[in-house]
Structure formats: structure tokens, C-alpha cells
Amino acid sequence: MKNSKAILQVPGTMKIISAEIPVPKEDEVLIKVEYVGICGSDVHGFESGPFIPPKDPNQEIGLGHECAGTVVAVGSRVRKFKPGDRVNIEPGVPCGHCRYCLEGKYNICPDVDFMATQPNYRGALTHYLCHPESFTYKLPDNMDTMEGALVEPAAVGMHAAMLADVKPGKKIIILGAGLYWFDDVASVQMPGRNGNCRR
């Protein structure tokens, strides 16, 4: 097996470099990445550089965090996955012990290790990556791997619909026309909701 990854050299220029295949820690899975979504933050990072520049000017900067692939190896303590499982990931790994994590609000952990951002700028635009078992999810048989890479952005639309308490008959407005707009429309048109889309 060989590995390579795409690294941002300067804004507007990426370079594909050879890389070691990472070895999973005892609680991690090694994933062969098959699909990576391009988020608006990736476009911004590519065009303008990272939101928060690294402290080390020699730090490699990877992009991409919406991904799915196939497990090829597992750490010694991994129990939920085996090689051959198709998976996607939750790209933000929280500290697990701050106030927010303990309250179940780990998405706002101040020390979250979110892919393609500080502290390590590890991106999903690579052939192989390791990820914690607890933030990796098996794809159902009726979902292909490409669709699996879109679950993370689709969750944003679903969360917005839930926060807005969208119910049958409720009138809503969705502004914008990017990928998240489509996620929002799909979320309000789920069974039990009566969504009509007009431009």
C-alpha cells in the first residue's frame, strides 16, 4: 500500500506528496479514503489560507473533513469495526473532559481537534487516515460510500430544521443556494414535514 496526501503550499496552490501510511493507535481505525466532500471552509482555506494560521510556518496544511471510505486495519482495543467495513467520520474530536464535553455539548469543546484546522491541520485529502473508533460510523447497506461522505454536511441541514422546529404546515424561508441549501430543503421535505421549495 502507498499513501499520498494533498498539502496546501500557499493560497491557491496544492501539492500532492508521498506520505507514510499511518498506524492506528489502540482506539483508532485506519481508513482507506474513497470520497471527500469540498466544504466552503475548504474553498476558503485553498483561496486564502487557513482561518487560523499555524504557529509553525513549516506546518503542513491539509484540507478536507467530509469523508468516507473503507476500514483496512483496526487498533487493538477497537470492537465496533473490522477491515472491510464502510464508514464515515465525525471530523471533530473533542477533548472529552471539559465542561462542554461532560454536558454532552462536545461540538463546542474549546479544545476540539477538528480536521484541516489547528492544532495539526490533518486533512482528509489523503489515501489513508486514522480516526478514533468513537467518532467513526458504519454506513448502512443501503447507503453507498459517496453518499456517506455527505452525511456530515447533511447533518447541518437536519440540525437547522430541528432547531427551527419545522412541522407540517409551518412556513419557513431558506436563504442561499449552496450545498447546505439543498440539505436544508431535503431536511424539511422529510416524511412528516410539508416542505415546498420555491426560488
How would you describe the overall organization of this protein?
The termini are far apart. Helix 4 crosses helix 5. The protein has two domains: 145 residues, Alpha-Beta Complex (Quinone Oxidoreductase, Chain A, domain 1), CATH 3.90.180; 50 residues, no CATH class. Strand 1 and strand 2 form a beta hairpin. The chain has five helices and nine strands; from the N terminus they run E-E-E-H-E-E-E-H-E-E-E-H-H-H. Helices cover 20% and strands 25% of the residues. The longest helix is centred in the last third of the chain and has 13 residues. It has a five-stranded antiparallel sheet with strand order 8-3-4-5-9. It has a two-stranded antiparallel ribbon with strand order 1-2. A two-stranded antiparallel ribbon has the order 6-7. The C terminus is likely disordered. It is an alpha+beta fold.
Quick structural summary:
With 199 residues, the chain is α+β, with helices and mostly antiparallel strands. 20% of the residues lie in helices and 25% in strands. Belongs to the zinc-containing alcohol dehydrogenase family.
